[in-house]
Amino acid sequence: MATIQFDNLGHSYHPHPSKPEDYALRRLSQEWEDGKAYALLGPSGCGKSTLLNIISGLLVPSEGRVLFDGLDVTRCTPEERNIAQVFQFPVIYDTMTVYENLAFPLRNRKVPEADVDRRVRQVAEALDLTADLKKRAQRLTPDAKQKISMGRGLVRSDVAAILFDEPLTVIDPHTKWILRRKLRQIHEEYRLTMIYVTHDQVEALTFADKVAVMYEGAMVQLGTPQELFENPEHTFVGYFIGSPGINLMPCTLGNDHALVDGIAIPLPDRAVPTVGGKFELGIRPEFLELTRSGSAGAIPVQVTGVDDLGTSKLATVRLGSQTLKARLSEEQEIPALDAAIRFPTRWTKLYRDSHLVG
Amino acid sequence: MDKVQDNRAWFLIIPVFLIVAFSAVVPLMTVVNYSVQEIFGPGQTFFVGTEWFEAVLKDDRLHDALVRQIIYSLAVLLIEIPLGILIALGMPGGRSAKTSLTLVLLALPLLIPFNVVGTIWQIFGRGDIGLLGATFRAIGIDYNYTNNSAHAWITVLVMDVWHWTSLVALLCYAGLQSIPPAFYQAAKIDGASKWAVFRYIQLPKMRGVLIIAVLLRFMDSFMIYTEPFVLTGGGPGNSTTFLSQYLTQMAVGQFDIGKAAAFSIVYFLIVLLFSFIFYTIITRTGEGEKK
C-alpha cells in the first residue's frame, strides 16, 4: 500500500499545448492517503480516465510527477509500480480456467505455488467464484467475467493500489449493488488503497472515503461525500452531485446581500469579493425553506408545481425570472397563494466564475 | 392470428434452388454420371458401375501425386501460417501512413493472376536471363528448375509462399486489430511476458481468422495447378505433378472422361475430408474443456 502524491501533474495529448483547453488533465498537486478508498467522479471526457492511466503507469504525463511513498514513479511501468487495475469491460484469458486466470498475475511473478493456491481460493471465496474455479473463463456470463477481472486485481496482496475503471458498467443493477458492497468489505478488511473511476454519483458516494470530482480536465473538488454535498466548491459539483442538483441564480452584489432580478437575498457573513467575474448564488433544494409570506426574511414566490417522490416532495417555485427547486418533507403543507422562501445564510453559497467565494 | 395456408413461400426459395442446382448440383451429377460409364463417343456409352473408381484407387501415379500433394499442402501450411502470424505481429497498428503503405504492399501479390505469378518466377529463376537464377549461377549454385526435381519443387513452394502469405498475414492482422487495448494493458499489469501475451491473448483471439486462413490455404494449395503448369508443366519427370495436373492430363490429354470423373469425385471427397479434419481440430483446441 502506498501514499500517492501528484506534483504539478498535467497532461495534454497535444504536442504543444498552449490554451488550458488543450489539457486533458490540468495542473494538479495533491496527496492521497494510504489505505483509503478514493473515487474519481465526472462525466465522460472530464479527464478521469487520463488521471487513472497516469496513476497506473499506462500513460506518461506530459508534465509533473507522480510519487508513491515519496518515490518518483512517473516513468515506471505498471509492473514496476506494483499496481493492479480493473477495466471497464471484462478482460479475461479465454483459454484459461477461472483458477488459472486468477493465478496468472501471481504465477507471472514467480510466487510459490502454495501461496498462489491460498490467495486464489481466498479471492474466489470473497467474490463467490469458488464453484466456477475449474470452468473455462470464456463460458461464463459477463458478470462472472468481470468478477474474474476484479479477482485478478485483488489476488496480489502486496499491490501499491488497486485501480477500478468503471468496473460495474456491464453488470446488472442488482449484482452491481452486491459487488459494490463486496468491494467495500474487502477494502475495510485489507485497507487497500483503492481508486475507483465512475460517472455515477451513487457509486462514487457509497464506495469512497473521498471523492474527487473532475470537470473539463480539472479536479474541482476533493472531499468526503458530506463535504461535496454541503459545501460544493464549484458550481459543477453542486450540479453533478445531488438529485436534483443545486439551484443556481445569476446575481449582482450589494453590500451584504445579493440581488437576483432586483430581489435582495441575504449573504453569509464571510468576506465577499465585490469585483470582477460572473456571480452566481447557489443553494441546494434540500436547504431551501418554503414558508408563508410575512414571516421574517421570507421572499414571496409563486409555486408552479409539486412532484411527490414518495419519500419527499419536490416543489418548483418561481422567483422573478428564476425557477428554483425545493425539497420538502412529505408532511409539509404547501401554501397555494402566499408561498415564500427563505435562504438560510449558512447554506447559501456565492460563486464567482463558478468557484465558491462565500 | 390467422395463419394463411398456401405455398407462396416456395417462390422465395425457388431462385436459390435454381442457382444452387445449376452451379453445383447439376455439374456434380454430370461428373457422377460420367464416373459410372465408359464413353467411346456421342451415344456410345456403357454403364460400368464402380470400375473407374476401382481403377482410380489402384492407380500408382495417382498415389504418387496424392502423396506429393499432401506433402506440398502441409509444407505450404507450415510455412505460410507461422510466417503470416509473424508478419501480422510485426505490422504497425493504428491509422498512419505507415499502416496504409504496409497494407498496400502486402495486398499487391494477391492481385496478381496465377499464371502471371508462374511466368514471373519462371523468368526470375532462369539461369541465363533471370535475376534469381543468374545470381545463383554467379555464386556457384547450380540452380536449375527444369532438370532438378528438388529445385522445381522448392521454386513452386516459394512461389506459393510469396503469392499467398500476405493473405494469412492480412487475416491475422484483422484478428489482432479487433483485440481491445484493455487486454494488452491488463496483461502488462498482470506482468505477462511477451510470449504469454501471444499465447493467452493474441493467439486465442486469432483463432477465428486462423480457421479461415488454414482452410483457404489448404484448399487452394491442394488444388494447385497453374503455377507448376507454367513453370515446368509438372516436371521434371512427374516431380511437380500434383493432383490437378494429373487430373487434367487424364481428362484433357488422354480423354479418359470416365476415369477422370471418378478421380474428380475422389479428389473432392479428399478435400472435404481434410477441411473437416482441420476445422474440427482447430475448433476443438479452442473450446475443449480443460480438466
Automatic annotation (TrEMBL), chain A:
It holds the Pfam family ABC_tran. Residues 4-241 form the ABC transporter domain. Keywords: ATP-binding, Cell membrane, Membrane, Nucleotide-binding, Transport. The keyword Nuclease does not apply. GO terms for molecular function: ABC-type ferric iron transporter activity; ATP binding; ATP hydrolysis activity. InterPro entries: AAA+_ATPase, ABC_transporter-like_ATP-bd, ABC_transpr_FbpC, ABC_transpr_MalK/UgpC-like, Mo/tungstate-bd_C_term_dom, NA-bd_OB-fold, OB_MalK-like, P-loop_NTPase. One of its GO terms (cellular component) is ATP-binding cassette (ABC) transporter complex, substrate-binding subunit-containing. PANTHER family: ABC TRANSPORTER ATP-BINDING PROTEIN, MALTODEXTRIN IMPORT ATP-BINDING PROTEIN MSMX. Belongs to the ABC transporter superfamily. This is ABC transporter ATP-binding protein. It comes from Azospirillum lipoferum.
TrEMBL record, chain B:
It is found in: Cell membrane. Residues 66-278 form the ABC transmembrane type-1 domain. It is a multi-pass membrane protein. The keyword DNA-binding does not apply. Signal peptide: none annotated. Keywords: Membrane, Transmembrane, Transmembrane helix, Transport. The chain crosses the membrane at residues 9-32, 70-89, 101-124, 152-176, 208-226, 260-282. It comes from the Bacteria. InterPro entries: MetI-like (IPR000515), MetI-like_sf (IPR035906), Sugar_ABC_transporter (IPR052730). GO terms for biological process: transmembrane transport. One of its GO terms (cellular component) is plasma membrane. Belongs to the binding-protein-dependent transport system permease family. This is Sugar ABC transporter permease. It comes from Azospirillum lipoferum.
